[in-house]
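agent: user wants the full assembly modeled, not chains individually. Plan: 1) parse entity lines 2) check alphabet per entity 3) run joint structure prediction 4) return tokens. Steps 1-2 passed, two entities, 732 residues total. Proceeding.
--- entities ---
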Amino acid sequence: MSLRTFILGLSASFGVAWLAVIVVPYLKMRDLAPIPFPESKATAGIFIPKRAGRVADGAKVYAENGCYICHTQVVRPTYAGNDLYRPDWGGLKNDEDRGDTRRETNAFDFTGETFAQIGLTRMGPDLSNLGRRVETQYAAGGDPAAWLYLHLYNPRLNPKLWDSTCPPHPFLFEKREIKGNLSADALPIDIGNNRQLVPNADAKALVSYLLSLKKDHAVPASLNFTPAKKEDGN
Amino acid sequence: MSAITSTTHDQDALLRAGIDRSLRHPVMFFLTSGAAWLAVSILLGVIASAKVHNPGFLSSCPLFTYGRVFPAHINALVYGWGMQAAFAMIIWLMARLSRKECTMIGTILTAGHVWNLGVGLGVIGILMGHGTGMPWMEFPAFAWPVLLLSYFAIVIGPFIQFRVRPEGHVYISQWYLLAAMLWFPWIYITANTLLHCVPGHPLMGAGINAWFRSAFIFLFFTPVALGTAYYLAPKVTGRPVFSYSLAKLGFWSLAVIAPWAGMQKLAGAPIPHFLPYLGAAATVLLFVPCCAAAINTLRTMLASRDTLAASPSLRFTVAGITGLIVLAVAAVLLNLPGSSLRLTQFSLSGYGFEILALYGFFSLVMFGATYFIVPRITRREWLSRSLIKMHFLFSVYGLITVILFTLFGGLMQGMGQEDWQSAWSPVAARPYAVATTFAWCLILFSNIFFFLHLALMWLGLGRRSTHPTLLVRSHHGSSPHGEEGDIDNAGPGHAATH
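--- prediction returned ---
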């Protein structure tokens, strides 16, 4: 076999797969067609994925500090995993206003990010709806951002999470002198010497991003694959 | 007639000695700096693993937060050790098999330094908090063009050598190496340009990243290690390769199947549904090329039991090929859609699979080849049999522990995740992590000595002897190689006996 034939053979065997699983799907998914949303009155019949918060900045901090190694951000359909059955992963099982909001992740859920942090392992829980969970459960009645700041500073300061394996991130906080009142987002930790712990710019971006993780908003029927639920849930 | 044969023998030995001499510094550079990176990577792996069961460990220092140490560990292992060991194999084997002296030493050494600089800055970049967040591609964006250019500068020489080689048989080793040399830039450029330069859908980006990791393993590390094993097995035992048609089957089935694999990590994510399931099917099918090559090389090596018992190269290679068989079985068992894929998709076993491929298969074969090549290019023998034995024992037992605990721990962890009726518990992975930390410590210990042993050999401090360092002590007073002698006094005729 000549070198030419050999290289042709390699190019053919690799090239077909390369085109079929990489290049063509990548180019086709670059611009997703808008999805009609006739049920919604607010958006003129088109589905417009919404997300509030410092998504791009926060996603960068999320990536740089390797959150994706232990936390996933995908709620798989029931044929691929049991994520949807958990009461608070795909949404909320009993939302006060909307009832059961759980649904699988869709292609519009990563709006504003350049790389979807699907994640590597689940040493920590899935974060697809972390913002929703913090607001309604973890920090119910309190300030969700403050709960997250304390969690980032050291997860095990929370007695409910005494056995958490999440690393502390003290470097996301700076020690600052107290002038007059405490800073609004200072941590409730007394470090003495007339000083306080306040989140730095990275921590603020990250918390804003984490609070934007609410992937349970209503979607058009064409994107809603969640099976019809009985009245009593599950 | 015999005079002619003896002359060709001498010329042959002179040619090989010339090739070895010309490649002494590049090969030793890649192997030694690779071994140093391996030790660094394993140290980072120990820290990362320790933090899983003891999250407060070193936590005051941002450099050593888990989310930075872990990617630094994997990237140092892949680009620092894996790629550099592969470079050493590619330049040495391509020169020997094409029977051409290397004439591009300067270029290769310069590019090798640039490569190390790129990897060093990349690892520091990750630790300083500038990682990109894309697994196996975490180096800050400046690094990939640097690495790519130095890659081309390193492999262009071996490629030209192959083009201008004297006419003759193309060995199966050359097929694998040549293919790896062509696949790597294709995979690397595709993943990096699409993810860094051509903004696309974020989920498809994650898919390409998963494909990149799989393709890197099966279309670069696997063919390089197989090419090396296909060289060592017949060379050390002195027997022909067991079956050439099996070798061809193994090669072409790898070429056809491996490019489709990888996206099963996105099963259930909203990308076109055929992609993850095609990926799972291809990964399962990789059993065929892996087993074909493994059986072929094992049969060749097992044909000569005495050599197997004595030769450190063969012992490591057999262990590596056994790792390949385990890898092939794991590829099937961990990726069955509907049963195991959902358990392993987001569990420790993904890491276990990567370590099995990178260390349990690829690195062990690289160690085997190192024990073969280094005495030839430095013209010195390995200093100590017990250092080699220790390297083998600690690596293999450490590795078995890491693999068992990550693969099975990952399965248990996956079952815990799928059990939605129990509350989420973060501690599932802890006991497995304790065992993993311990095992990484063993591997680190063995590799620090491997690095020192290599560095001493490069400094020319090896044994000056015509007797190779074998794993068994000779029972007879005199060795089959004749009298113990100074290697520098041995003529080309002696070199031919190696």
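agent: reporting back. Residues 10-469 of chain B form a domain with the Cytochrome C Oxidase; Chain A fold (CATH 1.20.210.10). Chain B has 17 helices and no strands.
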